[in-house]
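USER:
Working in pairs, take the chain set out below, taking as long as you need, and write a paragraph about the fold.
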Amino acid sequence: MQSPINRDFPLENSAVPVSELVRRARSALESRFPLQWICGEVTNLSRAASGHLYFALRDEEAQVRCVMYRSRAQLLPFRLDEGQSIEVRARVTLYEARGEFQLQVEAIREAGRGRLFEAFLRLKEKLAGEGLFDAERKKTLPVLPRGIGIITSRQAAALHDILIAFARRAPHLPLVLYPCPVQGAEAGAQLAAQVRTAGRRAASDGVDVLLLCRGGGSIEDLWAFNDEALVRAIAACPIPVVSGVGHETDFTLSDFAADLRAATPTAAAEIVSTGHVDAIARLGSLARELAKAIRQRTDSAWERVDKARSRLIHPRQNLARQSEKLAALEKRLSLAVRRQQERREASLALLANRLAARRPAPARENERLKALAARLHLQGGQILTTRRERIANLASHLDHLNPQAVLDRGYSIVRRADGGLLRSARDTNQGEMLTIHPARGQIEARIERIGQEPEKQSTVEPGGHKA
């Protein structure tokens, strides 16, 4: 009995395809080395158009190629730079297409801040799982807010930048400050309390948008904006919240919870005032268009006034002109009436001449009628005589063709019992009853004997016709 072949361990003399070998090596690496943190320095950094990050992680003695896919790279809270010391949480694997050993990076933190950053990532994952960062729950900013609420410190440079931005772009827009520390152990709880206060007083304070701002700093300086209570207060705020914390490369959990993230506090002020700036620009454009339209209509009206003034004349002159026009019309009317009367008179004379030419002459017409009557009497007599002669000829011919005339000459008609004509002696039988029709009356007879048919003899009737 043959034993089955173990295909995981080929025979000594059998060849293994390269793809199979690389696949086994990758499986062995991934099962041998679990997901772990690895530290090193970034080199050969490349950002692909797809969003993936490719780089190498090195130390004094070795380096290894790394890849961080887009879904993970877009969650980085800082910008990765060449030569930066970092710690990566990665899986050891093998890129089969090239047979290259590499690390598949899941997360990155800056070296030296591992515990804070790890806490940041854990809290971010927890809050994201609850849906606090979902795009569906984010509110849309009003285009023309009635007022802006600002949560920041009175001494913060960010407040100065925000006030300058609003003074430059929308000086008429009301600003309401909700002062609060932006750094320190209790800053997170106080920021959350001010967010809740601003949301509760939004209607009475006339605030439609809330700005949460502070300047840049280290991760420790910005840690208050990663407070869980603050993130939940932002998510529950009834009015839109714009986060303008730190610089463009700084990310906090408040940025993810806010309805909109601005790169800087100044950018936050510019974003919420965009509608007013556009409205002011639009009003300026409309004002210029309105002034232009008014100027054009005024110029057109003055042009019509000048034309009307040029046509305006003195009433006496107008009356004189109308009198002249009336006299001309009267003259034309008189001339037209006279010409029409002349045409009517000429037409009447023509009709009178035609009527006179067609006037009847009774004596002449009487003679003409007598001549026509004589002709009619003569021609009628001739036609009548001709028709009578023709009728007599037709009657004579008709009499000649009448069967009764033939019978009168001595002929008879013989019919058989069924009413059919007997034309030949051969068409009857002895003892058969026949009916004989002479010129007058009829005779019933029975056949006693049938003789032979005599030979036909030609006879000549009077008048030269053969019978």
Observations:
- Residues 315-357 form the longest helix (43 residues).
- The radius of gyration is 66 Å.
- Residues 1-7, 457-467 have pLDDT under 50 and may be disordered.
